[in-house]
Each structure stands twice: as structure tokens, then as C-alpha cells.
Amino acid sequence: MAFDSSRTVAASRNQQCGDSVQKSLKLSRLLQKESVDLIKTYKASQGEMSELFCKVSVNNVPDPNISGLEPSEKIASIYTHLQEFFPHFEWVYKQQTDLQLPTSPLLSDLRRFTAGSRNLAYLIKPFYQSLFPNVPLPEGGPTTLPPPQNVFQQKVYGCVVLKTFKELLSNVSRELRSLKSQVCRRRTHTNTLF
Amino acid sequence: MVSAGEMLVLAGLVLAVAATRGFSQTNHLVTAPQTTQFLEIGSNFKATCMIINTTEVTADDLYWKLSKTTVSKELYTKLNESAISVTIPVTSGQSEWLLCRAEKGNSAYVSLNTGKFMYGVLLKKGYPPGKPENVSCVAVQEKTTISRIFRCDWATVGRQTSDVPTKYTLNVVVIHIRNYSVSTEGTHTQVEFVDTYPHFMNLEIWVEAHNMLGKIESEHITQDANSFVKTNPPSDIKVISEKYFPTSPLMNWTQPIDKSYGKLKYEIRFCTIGSPNWTYVPKGDIATDIQSFRLQSLQPYTEYITQVRSQLGHWSDWSGTTMKTAEDRPTSKPDVWRIIAEVDGKNERRVQFISKDPVFANGRIITFDIKIQEQKNDNLQWDTILVNGSESSDGQRVITVLKDMLLADLRPVRLCVTANNSVGTSPMASLFISAKGHEDPPVKGLKVWSAEGKLWLQWTPPNGPDLSEYVVEWVSGDQTDWQRENKNTRLTAIKGNLEGFVRYTVSVYSIYSGRIGKPASKEAYLKEGAPLEGPVVRLNDKPGRNEAELGWVEIPLHRQRGFIVNYTINYTGGGETHEITVPSNTISYTLKSLSSNTKYDTWINASTVRGSAQSSTHSFTTLKYAPGEVESIVVGVCLGFMFVVLMTMLLCLYKKDVIKENLWPRIPNPGESTIGNWSPDYPLKAETPKENCLSGISVLDVDVCDGKSMFEEDKACLPLKKDKYLSEEHSSGIGGSSCMSSPRQSVSDSDEGSDMADTTASTVQYSSVVASNGYKGQTPNPHPQQAVFSRSESTQPLLDSEENPDMMIQESSRQSQHFKQENPAEIHLLEMDQQQQQQEEGVESLDFCPLDEESEQTKSSEGQSAASSYMSQREGYRPQ
Hints:
Mean pLDDT of chain B: 78
Structural class of chain A: mainly alpha
Number of strands of chain B: 51
Helix content of chain B: 10-25%
Oligomer: heterodimer
Order of helices and strands of chain A: HHHHH
CATH architecture of the domain at 334-525 in chain B: Sandwich
Strand order of the largest sheet of chain B: 2-9-8-4-5
CATH architecture of chain A: Up-down Bundle
Radius of gyration of chain B: 69 Å
């Protein structure tokens, strides 16, 4: 009976793991798709030389690369990287609020995209906590926002942030796919061993 | 016994009184509870009343009133000398006041301060809330994303009262992120997510119902947020029908939302245009996230409606398009039939072969190939009949006339037909027409009736062998249609588009291996109504004195709108209206017992089972006399008159002697009297006077003198004559002895000559007086005249006067002189003459009467007569 019970619990946990990873993965793909649309909208609303803005490199933008070797480190890295971008989104939104009309679709798209990104982070967190309940999830270090900028710099900065975040989302999707096969199967296997 | 709880209530009341010191100074009663109470219907409510700050009343003086009704004391409980409680059942749903009051008749204080001895609590009644059920939420697609508006609906359970309303709170929790809550009094509301719809997040949803009597939550729903999404239906739907796959068109569409929102499921259905039944593609055959699908097993050359819908959470609405599959070879036979009409005077039939396209034409039929065989081994060429290509708009198959031909009654033929479309040729259909009189037996007991908007037929099969099928044919005017039924059919309904109010001749033909048997036919209506018009009424003939024959023309068939069951003849005349009902096969009727010489209005109602129509009014007037009646009366009267005349004539003939005796009495012939012998020497014939004025009957008579002679002779002639008459005249004596008593010379006035005496046999010459002297200017007879006195011995009065009025006038003139002699007999005669003359000639006879006579006549007549007589007299002198 004990064997059967542990198997049932393991199966349930495996199901939850798979669901959480799957949802996170779906949301990251959705955000990826939305990031493409958002960058188009952003470029369209910046006026002339919008293509040029996105080719300029800017400092102080978070790194889109996922770090760590272990799944826990990778998941924690995803979470912290997502967290690092939110202040930049807020900053970009504030700058574009000054640059755009209140009815501009860019503003609403930015709000929706930011909220979706937060939701992704909210999905990662319980997933991590369910997988690694005894390992605290780092909230991420303080991020550095850019100093006061002129309009050109603001436009460049916004585009770089969006492009970098899009790259992060791509990395997140890739890591989640691998984590889904690694973490959930391994834990299932581990549980059944017990 | 006072329970501990009641003691606590009392203690609480005391504290409450202490807390509301100011209030207690003005009121001597207080209840517990004090505020408005919400009570559940069906429960009991207990209240306590306490006396404060007075000794005027005790607990025995307290009583409870619920609205206007005093609560029975049986429900009271006396707690102590200053407090009572009451327990009442909560029944009705109306809110009401429960009042504690005090009454003491001998206390003036209580009577003057009733307001201080009253305290109440308002009771509001209701039901606890019911658990909300069937909670469902949806978020619809908005452009390319999902709306942040999240709407939920639920159903209420249980009853509510207006005093205790139930409110609902929708709770939506985005797990680990945020809670949303919205209240409403209805059964639906919505929340708005912040910034974005929480895709792939878990939502927990429930509805809480709450009122003053409690609260309760619905079942909690925890689902992925995408399971509440309702996307738009798929767009840009196209169905491609390929030539080589006429039954498998390809369906394409664009998915309503990006794949990144989730995998979309699809559902596909199709049906032919006009069909209410959809064919669903099995869900297992449709993969997710597809944008095309190949339909299967459709009919070639058929218009279809194809629809598709998608599902992320909820199913979207349907979207679709219409399409027509490609053509294919006809796969069934054409439906061949014939119309046969008799040809008058010839032993031939006019046969028209007609055909409907095959049921599975699978394309537009372009031509029919036909072959008519008179013998089995005829190997004739096929004739090709072109079809004009028109298609029926009402879903009925088009009827094509293949051939018209005259066919001898005794000549059987076989028709072979194939239909062709642009792809190929159909199987061959054949029709065999037997020689007239050699048809196989018909079905028996055919019944036709209308029900459920259709014409139903039932029959009993014939006994003939080789029965293969039936053909049900219906004909209206020149419109013919038919349908085929298999040989086991006994009951069927006509599937064609029948019209109401149209008469159909429905026939059932039994088909024996292609040979057409005799039909069994009935007439029927799909739907009957009142006729559109009444019959045209007229009189078949002129109306009689007491009868009239009405005739009417049958209503045209297309205006009857049903079977005429009877005619009702109405006619009114002389203030009465009559009504006669006659069978439907009647087209004339004779109205009897009519009044003569009366105007009648008549009209006819033609009735079906559904109503009647009235004709226009026709008026006629009956005759006063029947034909021949007038003629009969005239003939009768004439015959009667003739009879009377005949009888009179016969009577006269038989009684002529009597009549003659009475009317013409026998008068003795004077010629036969003795007077001829009385003076034989005196010529009987008087001498004719020479003067004209004296010519005439009598020399005394001046009446006969014409005016001319009078003017010529002397105007004083008259006086002279009078003188002469007075002096010289010798009037004749008439009569018997009286005349003889005063003899005088007299000349018979028959002196005019013997002519008169001769010519008038009836004239009676009474006397003849010849004067001795002539009249003035008259030459006396040179020969001495002998006094001649001739007398008639007749006693007959002057009957000749009636025969000869002229003579009478002369006589009267002459006799007027006789009045001088006052001979009574003459007077008598004169009076008779005068009377008769007056009757016949008026006053003319008086013109020349002597004065004496005039005076006498004046006496007998009015003075006016005298005057007129005078005037006439004067005129009498004028030439006439």
C-alpha cells in the first residue's frame, strides 16, 4: 500500500510539474510572439529612423542570457532576469507616455506586455518552489536604470530594452523546454525509486 | 419560570436603559431587541418588554400588538412585575411592527401619555440566500487579443422578499497574483483584469450570495484562464471544388487567433441548401490547429453550406460559406411519364412524353436521348432532345417535354430515354404504353385527404401480376406532376409543391414491369376556403305572376377554392326574406308562391366547408296578371256581350210582335177611313200655295218662312200675319166633338201637296183647313173656294210628330195659333209637342211662339229662358 501511495503522489507531483512548466512555456511563447508585435508597434510609433534606434547598443540593460548549470539555478536565473527587466519596462513606459499620445496603442501594448511578463514570473516562482521547496528563490539584485536621457536616447533605450527582453524570452523558452524533460521526468523517476 | 437567558435580556435592557437615560425620561416602555429585526419566514421570534421609570402600570397592564392585531395572551410570558416577553411565529412576508403597549383604565396619567407607554420593533421577513448554481464565465476575443473583461453568469436558487434582498458577489482570483471582487443584485456581472488577460494562469471563481439572514457560496471553479476564452469564429472560409474530386471539396479558413494563445479545436458541418439537417464531420477526424480540411461523400453538382467553428475555451460562433460541388455523370435514370389526351372523332390518342431530370443528375442535364419502339426488335436511331437548361427555383425538378405524337388507340409503344450532362450519360429509363382498352387493372379503394399541410393517399393494391411500382399523378388545369412509389407503398403523401385552394385531380397508376395500368382518380384540395365570388344569378325566363325561374352560372373552378357543398337561394320581397338551400349540382330553381306585381331581390350563396360567397343581387318584378289572363277576361267579356246581344236579338225576334205592339202601336189607316167619302166632290189634294213663304204644310206656319222671304216681303209681315191669323185664320179643329162644337173654316195642312201624304205613309193628316182669303201678297185663288172641311176620324194623337220632327215644328207653329182659340185638345197636343221639342231642340221651338204662349212658357220656365228665347228669336231672323 505504501508503495502504491508514494507512486500516486509522485504521479500527481509529476503532473503538477509538467503543467507548471507547460504553462510557463506557453506563456513565454505567447510573450515572444507579443514582443515581436510590440517591437513593430514601437518602431511604428517612433517616427523616422526607427530602424536605426534598435541597432544602437545601450548600457545598463539587463543581460538576456540564462545562467547556471543546475535546473534550480537556471530557473532561478530565469526568475531573476525577468524581475530585473520590470523596472526598465516601467521606465520605458514612463518615457513613452511623455512621447506618445494617451490613445497610442503602444502604451496599452506596453502595459499588457509588462503584465504578461510579470505573470510569467509569477508562474516560475511557484514552479520553482514546488520543485525546490527548501531552496530560497533569489529575488534578483538591484537593477540600474539609465540616467536622464534626451528623446533620441529614450527611443533607443526603449527599443533596446524590448529587443533584449525578446531575446530573454527566447532563452527562457529554450530552457523551459529542456527543464520540462529534465526536471519533471527526473523527479518522477526519483519518486518512483522511493 | 424565567430562564437564565431571559434574565440576561433583562439585564441588557437595564443597561440599555441606563445608557439611554434621556430616552427613558420620555418613555416608560422599552423592548429587546430594539432595532429592526430581519427574520426568516417560518421561524419564531421572541421579544421582551420592560416598564421603566414608572409605577403607574405593571406587567399585567402590558400587551403586544402585531400590526393592528393584539397578540393572544397565551403567547406572553411574564418575567416579573415589570417585564413580559412574547414569542410569535414568523409567517407572512410582509414587514410589520411589533408593539408593546400598556393600558390601565383608572390611570389618568397613562391615558394622557399613551405615547410614553408604547414601544415597537420593526420586523422584516425573508429567506436566507440560496446557493448560486451554474456559474459560467467568458472572455471574448477583441481584435487579435483577448479582452480584459471577464463576464460571469449564474442561476439563483430559493426565494427572496423585497425586505430581505439577496446580493451576489463575484470573486475571481488569479492565483498567486490578484483577487477581483464585484457585487451585484442580478445574476451576472463582470470583472476587468488589470492590464492583460491572465493567459495560462489559474483562476479560481465563485459567487457568494448574501443577505441579512446569511450568506452562501457557489462551488469554486479553478481552471486555466484560457478555458474561459471565446474566440472569434474562423474567418476567410473557402471551399474549393475540384473537377476530379466532385464529392470531396477542400475547405480552407484562417484561424481567429494566434497559435501562441493555445491549440484551437475545430468543428465542421455541412448541409445542402434548404435542408434543415446538418452533417457533422466526426471530431476525431479533425486535428487541432489546422486551417484546412477535405470534406467527403458530398453529392456532385450540389450546393452546400459549409461551416466551421473553433474552440480555445468556449466554442466560437459558426462561420461558413456556400459552395457547389463539381459535376459528375448522372447516376440514376430520368423520371419519364406521359400525358394522354383523347382526340375527338378519331381512333387516336395524343401522347406527350415528359421527363424529369434524374434524381442524381450530378450536373446540369443538357440533352435527353429518346427512342420510341413499336416492336421489340425495332432498332431505331436515338433522337436527341435539347434541354433549355432552365432550373426550377423552388427545388422541384424541371419537367421537359420530350415528344408529342398521335398514337393509334390500338398501337402500343415503348419509350426509352437517357439523360446526359457535361460529364456522361445516365442509365436508361423506359415507359410502355399499352393499347387502349388493354391496360392492366387499377388500384382499389383510393382515398385522398388533406392533413398536416399535405395531401395523403391510401389505396389497396390491384390483383395484377408483375406489379413493380406506382406513379402518383396530380393535375391542376394544365399543370401535371407525378412521383413514384415502390410497390409496397399503401399510404403516401404528395411531395410536390401543392397550392391551397386549388382543385387537384389525383390519380394512382400501377406500373407492371414498365406497363402503365389504368388509373384510379379522385379530386381533392390541399386546403379549402370560401369561394372568391358567388355565382352569377339571372332569370331563365320572364318572371310569372307567382313564380320565377332562377338560373345561375357555376363559379369558375379557380375561384371556387373548395368543393361547393350547396347553394343557398335568398330572395326578399314584400318585406319578407326567404332562404332555400339546394344541392351543389343544381343550377336553376323555380321560386314559387311569389306575390304578384311585387319586386323581389334575390341572391345566392355558394358554400364550401370553409365558408360561402354571395352573388350580386338580382331584382325582378312579378307580373300583375298571369300570361293569358287578360286575354281570357277580354274573351270572356266579349263572349258574354255577344251572348247578351244574341239573346236580345233572339228575344226581339221571338217577341217582335209584342215589341212592335208596344213601340209602334197600330194606327188605323186614314185612307181606309170614311173621310174619303165624306166630301167626295172636294179634291183631297190641297192647292199648293204660290208664295214660298206660305209653302209648307200650313199657311199659318211662318216658321218655315225663310229669312229671305221675310225680308223681301215686309218686315211687318209678322204683325200682319198675326193680325191675319187673328182675324182671318181658320184653324182646323182636331179632335172629336169638341172641335165640332165651334166650327170654323179650316183647311187641312196637308195642302203641301199630296206628295207628303203620299211619301209619308205614316203621316196622319188630321185636318185640312183652307182659308177663304190668301195671305198677304198671295193671290187669292181666282176660283171660288169652297169651304172644305175634312176631318179625320182617327182618335190617334199626333204620332207622326215623332216620325217627322219637321212636321212637328210646322205643326207647332201652326198650332200655336190655335191657343188663341183655347182649344183644350190643341193645347194638350201643343204641350206634348213643346215638351218633346224642348227636349230635342231646346228653346228653338219657342222662338216663334206667340206672346201668349210665351207667357205661358215663361210660367213654366224661368225668365232667363224668355230672354234667351228673345235673343234667339232675333237671330232667327237673320239669314240662316
